[in-house]
Amino acid sequence: MSGRTAMQRQVKVASNGALLEGVLSLPVPAAGLVLFAHGSGSSRLSRRNRSVADVLVDAGLATLLFDLLTADEERIDELDRSLRFDIALLGRRLIGAIDWVGRQPELRDLPIGLFGASTGAAAALVAAAARPEPVAAVVSRGGRPDLAPAALPLVACPTCLIVGGLDFEVLQLNRQSARRLTALHALQVVPGATHLFEEPGALEQAAHLACVWFLDHLAGARTEALS
């Protein structure tokens, strides 16, 4: 543990006419802010994303876990799964959240990282392409970057794709997507891990890789902004 103090509170993120429930964790000081875009059928309460967020906060990074869908939309999605793959909608919600952060006095000066899991990774890439100025880094965990093909060559920030070594189909899709990225990027394979990183130590390794990537690229962005 780092010993840093961290404030945590519930927030409501205003994004393109929707009010989204979120949890903000803000260590003092913070080197940057990472917004989490959860995957198919998940939410701000995702156990895996919360576990990764804890690692980031302990390293001095603020985190914002929030729902990409409203409560009514989640009920619809539970019935027909029509919204969890609506990458355009999820991307707009994440862009709106980035803009919301820019209106918060305590957050607006922090460089932004985006962490996307599964379909949330596609939304993160769409948002990074649309907001190249505040977004300084992207990490995808078990993500589907192939669902955002038009955004891939437009992403300007360093992007890390983390995939389980036994997640064969998604690994192949990530390799293909990586070839379309023009920004600095890396494909990190966690040996022995499947799609949900449920194997012992797999999620911890993915969280460590994400933390290193964000610290390298967000801390540097903050230094440049302050100089």
Q: Care to describe what's here?
A:
Mean pLDDT is 91; it is low at 223-227. It is built from six helices and eight strands. A hairpin with a 2-residue loop joins strand 1 (5-15) and strand 2. An eight-stranded mixed beta sheet has the order 1-2-4-3-5-6-7-8, with helices on both faces. The chain has one domain: Alpha/Beta hydrolase fold, catalytic domain (Rossmann fold, 3-Layer(aba) Sandwich), CATH 3.40.50.1820. It is an alpha/beta fold.
Fraction in helix: 25-40%
Radius of gyration: 16 Å
* CATH architecture group name: 3-Layer(aba) Sandwich
CATH fold description = Rossmann fold
Number of helices: 6
Spell out the blueprint of helices and strands.
Layout: E1 5-15, E2 18-28, E3 33-37, H1 47-58, E4 62-66, H2 71-80, H3 87-102, E5 112-117, H4 119-130, E6 135-141, E7 159-164, H5 168-178, E8 185-190, H6 202-226
Parallel strand pairs: 3-4, 3-5, 5-6, 6-7, 7-8
Antiparallel strand pairs: 1-2, 2-4
Helix pairs in contact: 1-6, 3-4
List keywords for this structure.
227 residues, alpha/beta, Rossmann fold, eight-stranded mixed sheet, 8 strands, 38% helix
Please provide a brief summary of the model.
This protein is of the alpha/beta class and 227 residues long. 38% of the residues lie in helices and 25% in strands. Residues 223-227 have low confidence and may be disordered.
